[in-house]
Design brief:
The structure holds 2 protein chains of 2 kinds.
Chain A (H helix, E strand, L loop, with lengths): L9 H20 L17 H34 L15 H29 L8 E8 L2 E6 L27 H5 L1 E3 L2 E4 L3 E8 L4 E5 L4 E5 L5 E7 L4 E7 L11 E7 L1 H16 L12 H8 L5 H4 L2
Parallel strand pairs in A: 1-5, 4-10
Antiparallel strand pairs in A: 1-2, 2-3, 5-8, 6-7, 6-9, 9-10
Chain B lengths: L6 H12 L8 H5 L4 H31 L25 H37 L7 H20 L22 H4 L2 H31 L12 H32 L13 H35 L6 H14 L15 H29 L8 H24 L1 H7 L3 H31 L5 H27 L13 H4 L2 H30 L66
Helix pairs in contact in B: 3-4, 3-5, 3-17, 4-5, 4-7, 4-8, 4-9, 4-14, 5-7, 7-8, 8-9, 8-10, 9-11, 9-12, 9-14, 10-11, 11-12, 12-14, 12-15, 14-15, 15-17
């Protein structure tokens, strides 16, 4: 059989193949907006996202270091210990000290990463602040409905069991708050203010995914997912995407997101609230606690009781 | 014990049924045969057939992602009308079908039969010195259950509504409610096919476990077994524990779809997350079912071609046992953001990080194996060497997703697509190609063509990386998986050049199969020319020359030492077969 030797362009092709990829990636994106980072991350516009980006960078550099160290050693061995006449292989079944070292070291590194990651995870999922704006997000095949609190500052209570084709949000038609709710086909949020989302799905599982928010969360039928909140750090226009295969129209199940200043937000929301307020309504006394609104909205669907 | 089964005791059997003992074997020889070597070939031919179908689906998907809405040149019209429109361009619903069937076929009809059906069947009896499997007829039944499940799966393309488009993960209630998926018949057939496929895996697994435990040749202790046998033995145990859960979960979908039950439908009191827990309780061990045999095969091929014993044989075995055990307590890392309890996510994050440790041990031991070796660059060695690097990339990218906050961002993006293709293609498939080339001389009695082998290797290596490496960036760039057209999103249009790069890579990867298949067919057409032991290997299968008769060993071999005694000082040749006693002046190191 024909021998394969390293004197042939093996190493050159190998290194070439590895070098080619980043070059291709970089050149094809030179003109694009994402040139500010090596990972092609989209811009990050939430406080949560900044923590996640920092963690990605830590893991990236750790992995890059491990990759380069192991692969350089590996390729060096592959070249150095290629078959040469008169040089027999070394007879060895292993080395226990080495085994212990390379079992312990990764264990410590990986456990540290798990603990560090989980601290951020816990931080992300601490309860939403008092001044949060509560928005009910209802997903369906193949679109999104958003429900904002009406003039009273409170979302009408809902029950996931009442969600159906005639009752998109599962609210109680008898309740006066229901008529006040502001329903919109887009997600408009004020910059700098915490936004607390109540995620619902009417038919199958969908997911709320916004890459610029660094946020993915499934919306599960029969449940209220009430732990998602975030705070946008700058204004802009983005797109909400469904990222859980949900049927034929899945690929195009999107909704516009506008992060606007508090002023613009009020300019957008207030007329809509007033339109739904009805003739007998007076102006709201004070914005009520969003926590209370969230609680009211999740009357029968406490996440704590409902997790599987 | 049954270890005394030899060619002699099988001779009578072989004569009356299978090949009549003389002349060219008839067609029945290949259709119903209880010889484990023939069954391995049946699995090989079927799995390569499915590899071509599933691979073609992948190229079609890549075409749509690189050039959304453009008709597929030439081949577009050959696809079923449910997949493409009149112009030959893929429709969104057709894309979902391709996503689903590509995943299902590659996992259940390519990777599993190749690793377990082919190499489990072929190698276990030969490597442990047995005449056949413990239950030869059950073994053939296992193949035909597999073939039946393949027919059922493909039949779903021709029923009303067509094949399912709910992903290989078939998340309920999309999969379990006809009004949501529009393909109740296809989805039901998908479930039935997985159920029958599960029976095939279970019958195979029972057989492997019994064979390994009861039919080892004298002297073949558990810790003298070659690593592929250990790997497939542990895989069989995982199969027995994991497969029934999938079968039960699939049966519940059949009930929900056809009998009006509500296991997964909240309106009837069911729980959508129940499916995910059941599916991933199977699904995560499944990942290790697909990688453990690959690790075992690679370990042996690296050792043989480096002319060195496997570094830390016992550590390798214990690492595989650890992977098998830990594999059952990490399923929740597929569900961090599914609506599962958040503290549970944090707990699964810890177990997931821990399972990286045995994989790291194995990587270091592979590097230890080639260290100070005398590396012989053959085609199987090239694939095995590449396997280690690709597996390192796949393992490291897994760390990103194991971290809960990062998963909050990269979950269900192309980052995960890149990750599992580095593990399952760069890992499992590279190991499969390596093993096919390595054992081809033993399976067929013929050497493969070296030049075509090298062409196959370089095309696969280069185009594989060209296809899948940029997907890491696509994923971090926010590209969702399983969307038929990324250009409908503003932020993804900027990334379209990368999608084109991936598509070019995928087309090249598809073309790389041509030298592989041509090589297999051409080599099979020539007269047997392979020496009994072309790689100077130590394990028992290489002591037999072609053709190996039904019953394998004319005389049951006796095993004197562990499997990887290469370059033992003081010996004339650089390998000491397992059935040869070391001369008195030679001391073997404990392994």
């Amino acid at each position: 059989m024909r021998e394969f030797s390293f004197r042939r362009p093996f190493t050159r092709i190998l290194s070439g193949a590895f070098l080619l990829l980043p070059v291709l990636a970089a050149s094809s994106l030179m003109a694009e907006q994402r040139s500010g980072n090596v990972y092609l991350l989209p811009p990050c516009v939430t406080t949560v996202g900044e923590q996640i980006d920092d963690l990605i960078k830590i893991i990236f550099w750790l992995c890059a270091a491990i990759f380069v160290l192991t692969q350089v050693t590996y390729v060096y061995y592959l070249i150095k210990y290629r078959r040469r006449p008169g040089v027999p292989a070394h007879y060895s079944h292993g080395n226990n000290t080495l085994e212990i070292i390379w079992t312990t070291a990764p264990t410590l590194v990986f456990l540290a990463l798990a603990i560090y990651g989980n601290r951020i995870w816990e931080n992300i999922h601490r309860p939403a602040p008092e001044n949060s704006l509560v928005i009910d997000v209802s997903s369906y095949q193949f679109g999104w409905d958003m429900r904002y609190p009406g003039i009273s500052g409170k979302l009408a209570p809902m029950d996931v069991r009442k969600i159906g084709p005639e009752n998109r949000f599962g609210t109680d038609p008898e309740n006066p708050l229901t008529a006040q709710d502001v329903v919109a086909p887009e997600l408009v949020i004020p910059v700098g203010r915490p936004v607390h989302l109540l995620l619902h799905a009417r038919d199958v599982i969908h997911s709320f995914y916004v890459p610029e928010f660094r946020l993915y969360q499934d919306c599960v039928p029969g449940r209220t997912i009430a732990w998602v909140w975030f705070q946008a750090t700058r204004t802009g226009e983005f797109q909400l995407a469904c990222n859980q295969l949900c049927g034929t129209g899945h690929y195009n199940m999107k909704a516009p997101i506008r992060v606007v200043t508090e002023e613009e937000f009020q300019k957008w929301l207030t007329p809509r609230q007033q339109k739904n307020a009805g003739p007998a309504q007076t102006a709201p006394s004070a914005p009520s606690s969003p926590q209370a609104a969230a609680k009211a909205a999740t009357l029968t669907a406490s996440p704590a009781k409902n997790t599987l | 014990m049954s270890a005394s089964v030899t060619a002699d005791s099988h001779a009578a059997h072989a004569h009356h049924g299978d090949d009549h003992g003389h002349g060219k074997p008839g067609i029945m020889h290949w259709i119903w045969n209880t010889d484990h070597k023939v069954i391995a070939m049946q699995f090989l031919v079927s799995a390569v057939f499915f590899l071509l179908i599933g691979g073609a689906m992948a190229v079609a998907m890549r075409w749509q992602l690189g050039f959304p809405g453009h008709p597929i040149p030439v081949l577009g019209h050959l696809l079923p009308s449910g997949i493409v429109n009149d112009e030959g361009a893929i429709m969104p619903s057709g894309y979902n079908v391709l996503v689903t069937m590509h995943g299902t076929i590659l996992v259940f009809f390519v990777a599993m039969p190749l690793l377990i059906g082919v190499f489990g069947n072929f190698l276990i009896p030969l490597k442990i010195g047995a005449g056949d499997m413990a239950f030869p007829a059950l073994n053939e039944l296992s193949y035909w259950l597999f073939a039946l499940s393949g027919v059922i799966m493909m039949a779903s393309f021709w029923v009303p509504g067509g094949a399912p488009g709910t992903g290989w993960t078939g998340y309920a209630p999309l999969s379990s409610v006809a009004a949501y998926n529009q393909t109740p018949m296809g989805q039901t057939l998908w479930c039935v096919a997985l159920f029958v496929n599960g029976l095939s895996s279970l019958t195979g697994a029972v057989n492997y476990i019994t064979t390994v435990i009861t039919m080892r040749a004298p002297g073949m202790t558990m810790f003298r077994m070659p690593l592929p046998v250990w790997a497939i033995f542990l895989t069989a145990i995982l199969l027995i524990l994991a497969i029934p859960v999938l079968s039960a979960a699939a049966a519940l979908i059949i009930f929900d779809l056809n009998l009006g039950t509500s296991f997964y439908k909240p309106q009837g009191g069911g729980q959508p997350l129940l499916w995910q827990h059941l599916f991933w309780f199977f699904g995560h061990p499944e990942v290790y079912i697909l990688i453990l045999p690959a690790m075992g095969l690679t370990s042996e091929i690296l050792s043989v071609n480096s002319r060195k014993p496997v570094f830390g044989y016992k550590a390798m075995v214990w690492a595989m046992i650890a992977i098998g055990f830990l594999g059952f307590i990490v399923w929740g890392h597929h569900m961090y953001v599914s609506g599962m309890n958040l503290t549970l996510s944090a707990a699964f994050s810890v177990s997931t990080m821990v399972i990286a440790v045995p994989s790291a041990i194995k990587t270091f031991n592979w590097m230890g194996t080639i260290w100070r070796g005398s590396i012989h660059y053959t085609v199987p060695m090239a694939f095995a060497v590449a396997f280690v690097s690709m597996f390192v990339i796949g393992g490291l990218s897994g760390i990103f997703m194991a971290s809960t906050p990062v998963d909050l961002f990269v979950h269900h993006t192309y980052f995960i697509v890149a990750h599992f293709h580095y593990v399952l293609f760069g890992g499992s498939m590279f190991a499969i190609f390596s093993a096919i080339y390595f054992w081809f001389p033993k399976m067929t009695g013929r050497m493969f063509d070296n030049t075509l082998g090298w062409i196959h290797f370089w095309m696969t290596f280069v185009f594989f990386n060209l296809t899948f490496f940029p997907m890491h960036n696509l994923g971090l760039g926010g590209m969702m998986r399983r969307i038929a057209d990324p250009t409908v999103y503003d932020c993804l249009r900027q990334l379209q050049p990368l999608n084109v790069v991936c598509t070019i890579g995928a087309i090249g990867l598809g073309l790389a199969t041509i030298p592989f298949v041509v090589n297999l067919v051409m080599s099979l057409r020539k007269a047997p020319d392979a020496p009994a032991n072309p790689w100077n290997s130590t394990t028992l299968e290489w002591t037999l020359s072609h053709p190996i008769q039904h019953g394998n060993f004319p005389v049951t071999p006796t095993v004197y030492h562990g499997p990887y005694e290469y370059s033992v000082p003081g010996l004339q040749k650089d390998f000491l077969p397992q059935n040869e006693k070391a001369p008195a002046h030679v001391t073997l190191e404990a392994h």
